[in-house]
Amino acid sequence: MEDWTLRESLVTAAGNVRWDRLGEPGGEPVVLLHGTPFSSYVWHEIAPALAAGGYQVHVWDMPGYGASGMHPGQDVSLGAQGGILAELLAHWGLREPSVIAHDFGGCVALRAHLLHGARYRRLALVDPVALRPWGSPFFRLVGEHSRVFEQLPAALHEALVRAYVSSASHAGLRPATLDALVGPWTTEEGQAAFYRQIAQADQRYTDEIQPLYPSIALPVTVCWGTEDTWIPFARGQELAALIPGARLVPVPEAGHLVPLDAPARLTSELLAFLTA
Hints:
single chain; alpha/beta; eight-stranded mixed sheet; hydrolase activity; Alpha/beta fold hydrolase; hydrolase; AB_hydrolase_fold
């Protein structure tokens, strides 16, 4: 599955979105959301496993990420991505899918549900960006000086991205996996896009919805890597306490990149949640 290809596309206001479906038609729909600075590739082990379990799995790269379009002036903010998800669900004809979202994708899923009227059967949040405050010192530094970082020599830029992405894993990423995650950011368009998405990150997009979490009225599970150094496990406990009936699932020996650090354990937990 190192050759991860999204075969379909949809032109949106934020740019071209690449997407794909796995599994037999008619299976219960599941939509997977990636985070930043990643792509749908983070699900390359879990998506086929869910499809083999009888689900029809929808994967997509957000505008400005992975194989989707990247261009100057592009709005890749959390505000834009929530609307794009709602647009995709309508395009796919999915009225009430189950949604599984990692990192930044957690906020996107929550915004689409709470602000754009997207309906879900169930929602699984995996180490999501959902609570204030967020953003590491590195993240804030880059956001404040994105124009400077965009001008880094290509080799230095790639080394920075590799180190940053690697730090999200506790177990350590296989070379081919790291290459697949870093690759989209190493083109000329990708280098600018990498700093653009950080520059547009703004805590106000989570501040806007955080007071609404107690109004969520659907089954929710919160899975969290116990060794997450990007967003500590305590944030998972706080988030689960805010959402009525939410269940917190610790994932031992996993960092922020739970789908890659502990794919078998996470798949097992997700299948149990989807069939509960």
